[in-house]
Amino acid sequence: ALLASSFAAPVLANPPPVKAPVVQVTIRAAEPWVVSISASVPGQGWNMPNPMPSPIPNVADAQAYALDQLGAMQYACLDSIIQGESRWRPYVWNTKGSGAFGLGQAKPASKMAPYGDDYMTSPLTQVKFVIGYTAKKYGSACNAARYRATHGSY
User: Fold this and answer.
1) Is 60 helix (H, G, I), strand (E, B) or coil?
2) Which one of 81, 103, 108, 131 is CB 3.0 to 4.6 Å from 126, fit for a cystine?
3) Helix axes 123-138 and 141-151, enclosed angle (nearest 10)
4) How far is Cα 96 from Cα 90, in angstroms, rounded to an integer?
């Protein structure tokens, strides 16, 4: 239930004058989706830039990361796993209702959480999970791909 209350702030008959500083705002667009905003007060040496947010990683970023981390041979094996599991579609749920989700069809999806809070939306976080999972469980992406080829899943 919502509670309503009223509050009346005191009004000063002669409030003291307040001189607001002039603030210069600069907006830069490095990319269509990334904007940097900074503000400064001229003559006071104060400058507080707003850090540019990182672009949201996409599938190409995840693929480049995996290739860089694994090298060409292990990447080819990882690619075969992900192609078979999700066709590099990071938002895919298992159609049979198992709860598996993402590039590597993690089951449950929350298994990816240690790799990043954005595991439901970031292909990069998901590929980091697949790399870690295949290394831990099978020793390498190629061992995992061989297991998947003979058992139908990994």
Assistant:
1) helix
2) 103
3) 80
4) 17
pTM of this structure: 0.66
Q: Which residues of 92-123 are buried (b: 16+ CB within 10 A; e: fewer)?
A: eeeeeeeebbbbbbbeebebbeebbeebbebb
The residue written with tokens 């190409």 in the block is: 60
Sign of CA dihedral 103, 57, 131, 145: positive
Please list the alpha-helical segments (H only) found in the chain. Answer: 59-85, 123-138, 141-151
Interatomic CA distance for residues 143 and 147, integer angstroms: 6
The dihedral over CA atoms of 95, 96, 101, 104, expressed in degrees to the nearest 10, equals -90
Q: Which residue, 102, 108, 153, is CA-closest to 128? A: 102
CB neighbour class for 74 (10 Å; exposed up to 12, middle 13-18, buried from 19): buried
Average pLDDT, the chain: 82
Of 80, 85, 84, 86, the closest CA to residue 66 belongs to 80
Residue 43 φ/ψ, nearest 5 degrees: 80, -5
